[in-house]
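S2.1 Query sequence (Aspartate aminotransferase)
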Amino acid sequence: MHTQQSPSPSADRRLSVLARHLEPSSSAAIEGHNNHSIVAAPTSGYGGTQSVFSHIVRAPEDPILGVTVAYNKDTSPVKLNLGVGAYRTEEGKPLVLNVVRQAEQQLVNDRSRVKEYLSITGLADFNKLSAKLILGADSPAIQENRVTTVQCLSGTGSLRVGAEFLARHYHQRTIYVPQPTWGNHPKVFTLAGLSVKSYRYYDPATRGLHFQGLLEDLGSAPSGAIVLLHACAHNPTGVDPTIDQWEQVRRLMRSKGLLPFFDSAYQGFASGSLDTDAQSVRMFVADGGEVLVAQSYAKNMGLYGERVGALSIVCRNADVASRVESQLKLVIRPMYSNPPIHGASIVATILKDRNLYHEWTLELKAMADRIIRMRQQLFDALRARGTPGDWSHIIKQIGMFTFTGLNKEQVAFMTKEYHIYMTSDGRISMAGLSSRTVPHLTDAIHAAVTRAR
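Output structure tokens follow.
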């Protein structure tokens, strides 16, 4: 049998001290606070239900991500989500590339891999290979060590790091973005400390490029201003300049000392060719001038949730590039310290293995080709239906998105009557479409333009 022992004197003393600390009305507590009674602080959890955050109003849903929120709440069996910027198979399912699974299996099987922190600038192999992918393996800028590349949190994080760097170290703090542009661009640049202005880009009348307006607006921009350029597959319009037009833009920008900041979110995903989709960037690098490029592997490797991206800054010489990198570290360190290792390791594994790289290019082209087929099928269906209007812009535009030209009222009509979800500006994701759902979308568009004018 065990007999219960009395608490030791030292245990009694500890309990007594603890009790005094826990008892707010004890004489010791009162004496310690000059005989003022203790009142529970708003954050303490005692004395009422009022929150210190009661004044906060509910923020609106993100205009792009909110489309999926609304879609998920819809119980209709025929609902269709054309707002999400992610690739879907013909069956409407998310896709993990076979080459990504192979790379991940290699990483899992490598018992020498550890989970230690990366450096502030990220995975060295990933940075080196990312620069080669966008600038070209034979790029003089790379060979002359004039490029500094840092791993960032996908395209958004790359843009933010670049913007913060420019706000601290560049003499001009105005950035011109195309009108329209991706909805997150103005927010990223404004919060980083830049002043955002726009230049004409899309012409609603032709549903194509407003090239003359673009040249006029950039021509009147102050010398040295930053200009955001979509490398390919402009989001949201799907409208890109031709090579000749890009050359005119390059000459104009260089003559005025405008600083190009490319957002490359769709390399290889637009045309199916990695080199073709990088031509605009390489034209600006080839003239020896300075360029910033934000890269994302969300779309072209399907690594959406891995948040894999890179920021490359092409400088005049190697010494400047080295100093720029030292300052980029000071931007990144207090922001997220260093980037995650897994996604970058997948990308590096694929890019440095000849067989995996080749397989990736085949899968990438297959995704791009499916989107191009969806464009053709939708155009053919609208034409066969006799839907009023010229819908040729659907097959002229490129990349994941199509700017349909539908207005807010027509979009709302299609959502209410046909359970089709898209952003209010009429942008649809061609990747969310399939041969099975083209007829439903065609019916909705036809009804919208004939009944919801």
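The two ends are 90 Å apart (CA to CA). The chain has a mean pLDDT of 91.
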